[in-house]
Backbone:
């Protein structure tokens, strides 16, 4: 496993609680849209075993041509040790990234794509949308729906509807409106539905989609094979799998 140590080159305050950390791209490091990585703070590998409290899974919110690796996260006042340290890091600090992989690249199979996300889950989709803007080949259209109860919606410069580009972006601030809209979107029986958020959010979305006749193979989650299978089968076949730590 290759660990890439790199520097924070910029910190962007997206909203009062959400920050994007832009990291220098190490040589030979590349990634595709929808990727997540292991983001680790100095000292994580100082002992015999890696210190898990200094490592988090994070999506990469940028594309390689932006020349920085973007990590977007919410840091609440009450937060973990990881985020307490992260909050105080400055430009120039070294951080590590490793085991980078995309479970949710943009499928170019001539379908309508629906991006369903909660809060900073939108960060996973930012590169998919940028990739689509650059090259719309074999993607009919993209519709993004994000729920953020804080109402501090993210990336609004990119996530705004552009009819000419067949891109629709919707933000809602409550569950009722959100799930009504998901139901409405599921009227497209041939669409592809990407979902990013907590496991509870994934399950609730899949239940709504299932009830509207959407099939498991039309649903894309940011999960490895085992976790993906367990979560989908819990919704579509009623199997009671252990849903904790399935990523
Ligand atoms: C594939 C994948 C991709 C991911 N991508 C991203 C991403 O792009 N961005 C992202 O932010 N996360 C992402 N995550 C989730 C991420 O890994 C973390 O699990 C998440 O950010 C929570 O971080 P944390 O554990 O440091 O907790 P926090 O965010 O600090 O806290 C989680 C919750 O616990 C509460 N809490 C924490 N500590 C305390 C305390 N001492 N007292 C009271 N309440 C407390 C907080 O208020 C909050 O509600 C991803 C996960 C996976 C699996």
Residues:
């Amino acid at each position: 496993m290759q660990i890439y140590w790199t520097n924070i080159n910029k910190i962007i305050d997206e909203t009062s609680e959400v920050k994007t950390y832009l990291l220098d791209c190490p040589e030979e490091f590349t990634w595709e849209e929808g990727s997540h990585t292991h983001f680790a703070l100095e000292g994580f590998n100082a002992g015999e075993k890696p210190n898990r409290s200094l490592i988090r899974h994070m999506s990469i919110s940028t594309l390689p041509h932006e020349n920085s690796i973007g990590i977007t996260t919410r840091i609440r006042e009450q937060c973990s040790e990881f985020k307490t340290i992260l909050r105080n890091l400055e430009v120039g600090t070294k951080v590590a990234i490793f085991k980078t992989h995309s479970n949710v690249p943009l499928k170019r199979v001539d379908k309508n794509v629906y991006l369903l996300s909660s809060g900073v889950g939108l960060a996973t989709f930012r590169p998919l949308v940028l990739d689509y803007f650059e090259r719309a080949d074999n993607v009919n259209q993209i519709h993004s729906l994000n729920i953020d109860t804080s109402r501090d919606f993210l990336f609004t410069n990119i996530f705004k509807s552009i009819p000419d580009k067949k891109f629709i972006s919707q933000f809602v601030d409550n569950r009722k409106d959100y799930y009504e809209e998901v139901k409405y979107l599921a009227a497209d029986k041939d669409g592809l539905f990407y979902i990013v958020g907590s496991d509870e959010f994934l399950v609730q979305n899949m239940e709504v989609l299932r009830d509207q006749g959407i099939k498991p193979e039309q649903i894309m989650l940011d999960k490895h094979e085992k976790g993906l299978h367990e979560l989908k089968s819990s919704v579509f076949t009623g199997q009671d799998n252990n849903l904790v730590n399935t990523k």
Notes: The CA atoms of residues 189 and 213 lie 7 Å apart. Residues 122-134 form the longest helix (13 residues).
